[in-house]
Design a protein that fits this description.
single chain, Aspartate Aminotransferase, domain 1, seven-stranded mixed beta sheet, PyrdxlP-dep_Trfase_small, globular, binds ligand F0G, pyridoxal phosphate, alpha/beta, lyase, Aspartate Aminotransferase, domain 2, three-stranded antiparallel beta sheet, PyrdxlP-dep_Trfase, Tryptophanase
Length: about 450
């Protein structure tokens, strides 16, 4: 087991509520984990985004942050680091990934066009629609077999992409966006071979090819481990190869920027850059800060170096793989093979006594909180299903999953063992897990604000 290449200097207490206190907290939250207070949670696996720990070197750099309105020293440090990593001639800072998506799609996509992806993340999907375009996912067929051990289930379906580009709708494709790693479908990586082939198809048809590179370092690590020919490459060189293939990228730096906030756009085209910059200045901030403080930019400049260190990536990948093994050994299936930033529990299979309309993923998530103070996110019919006006499920999601997202450098082995032990106890008596029904739901973005109640007390 590779040792994490750091020790802990600053700690933060975590709360331990009793079972009755947790039951009361979840009841008051309308059985929606988004409504829980963070100080009611013992192990918070809701997201790996902006939830990581910064290093002493990042905090030391932050102390030197230059908060000048324009042309701050911190901007140049950030820009130079990102330029060296990605090679893009034009870089724009944004406060987080979705701001970059909004600006890029607004400048690049025309109403009626199609944006193709291996899988759009939910905000990406929403920002494509806000630009008047249609998001279309073309995941590879292996991705839809949760148990398949295929090493690159994040790949785009090249046959379907080629058919789309050369078929009657080909002229409407305005962008191909590859999400590395594929967060919407099990944290699975995209191979370099798949990126190269998708790039070649886009070049042949004159379609811009971009990366949603939120987890560029973790994708690079999995390429190094799984794709023949890359084993002696550094993660940094692999990431650079991926950036080289694309016309640009949007990155949420709240993940592999090892920062609590931040994002960026990387572009090659001068005209596209000018249009994005104008929008950035109007909506995010001047083009040398884009909604970030000088201190954030300094933390990012250091984080972008730390995240591609092989020892860091090896330890993080091993910690997730170990948790997956413990969970699988306890009889709970996860999407195979394990990725790095998250594990996806197959709640539908663990809880066959619950129908999709009783939300097995949500039910398992609530049980994890009630039994172990663990917070996680449902990725099943509550999030993705369609409902009628009386909140009854009409079309279920293809899978009933629960995502355990692992914040970077935050939890030790004991915390992850606690997650595995809590799940193992649930798996011994799964029938104990009650289903849920919806009490009220907002008109948009259901999963953030929905309120539910257990079917059995
Ligand atoms: N793209 C991907 C692949 C993401 O996972 C996210 C965010 C974004 C874009 C948007 O970035 O949050 O900085 O605006 N994912 C988080 C998650 C929220 O929990 O997976 P953002």
């Amino acid at each position: 087991m590779p040792l994490p290449p750091y020790r802990i200097k600053v700690v933060e207490p975590i709360p331990f509520l009793g079972p009755e206190e947790r039951a009361a907290a979840l009841h008051a939250a309308g059985y929606n984990p988004f409504n829980l207070r963070a100080d009611q949670i013992t192990v918070d696996l809701l997201s790996d985004s902006g939830t990581g720990a910064t290093s002493a070197a990042q905090e030391a750099a932050a102390a030197l942050g230059d908060e000048s309105y324009a042309g701050a020293r911190s901007w140049f440090r950030f820009r130079d680091e990102l330029a060296e990593l990605t090679g893009y001639p034009h870089l724009l800072p944004v406060h987080q990934g979705r701001a970059g998506e909004r600006i890029l799609f607004g400048a690049l996509l025309r109403p009626g066009q199609i944006c193709v992806s291996n899988t759009h993340f939910d905000t990406t999907h929403a920002n494509v629609e806000l630009a008047g375009a249609e998001p279309r996912d073309l995941p590879c067929p292996e991705a839809l077999d949760l148990d398949s051990p295929d090493p690159f289930k994040g790949n785009i379906d090249l046959t379907a992409l080629a058919e789309l580009l050369s078929g009657p709708e080909g002229g409407r494709v305005g962008l191909v966006l590859m999400t590395i790693t594929n967060n919407g479908l099990g944290a699975q990586p995209v191979s370099m071979a798949n990126l190269e082939a998708a790039h070649a198809l886009c070049r042949e048809h004159g379609v811009p090819f971009f990366l949603d590179a939120a987890r560029f370092a973790e994708n690079a690590w999995l390429v190094r481990e799984r794709e023949p020919g890359y084993h002696d490459w550094t993660p940094r060189a692999i990431a650079r190869q991926a950036f080289d293939l694309a016309d640009g990228c949007v990155i949420s730096l709240k993940k592999d920027g090892l920062s609590n906030i931040g994002g960026c756009l990387g572009l090659r085209d001068d005209d596209l850059y000018a249009r994005c910059e104008a929008n950035l200045i109007a909506t995010e901030g001047f083009s040398t800060y884009g909604g970030l403080s000088g201190r954030d930019l300094e933390r990012l400049a250091v984080g972008l170096r730390e995240v591609v260190e092989p020892a860091y990536l090896a330890a993080r990948a091993a910690a997730t793989a170990r948790l997956a093994q413990l969970i699988n050994d306890a009889g709970v299936d996860t999407v195979q093979p394990a990725g790095i930033h998250a594990l996806y529990l197959n709640a539908g299979r663990l809880l066959p006594h619950l129908t999709p309309a009783e939300f097995p993923g949500h039910s398992l998530g609530c049980r994890l909180f009630l039994d172990g103070g663990i917070r996680c996110a449902e990725l099943g019919s509550l999030y993705l299903g369609t409902m009628d006006e009386r909140h009854r499920l009409v079309t279920p999601a293809p899978f009933e999953l629960v995502r355990l997202a692992i914040p970077r450098r935050v939890y030790g082995q004991e915390h992850l063992d606690h997650v595995a032990e809590t799940l193992a106890a649930i798996a011994k008596d799964p029938e104990r897990v009650s289903g849920y029904r919806i009490v009220s739901t907002p008109p948009m973005l259901r999963h953030f604000k929905v309120r539910l109640e257990p079917i059995r007390p």
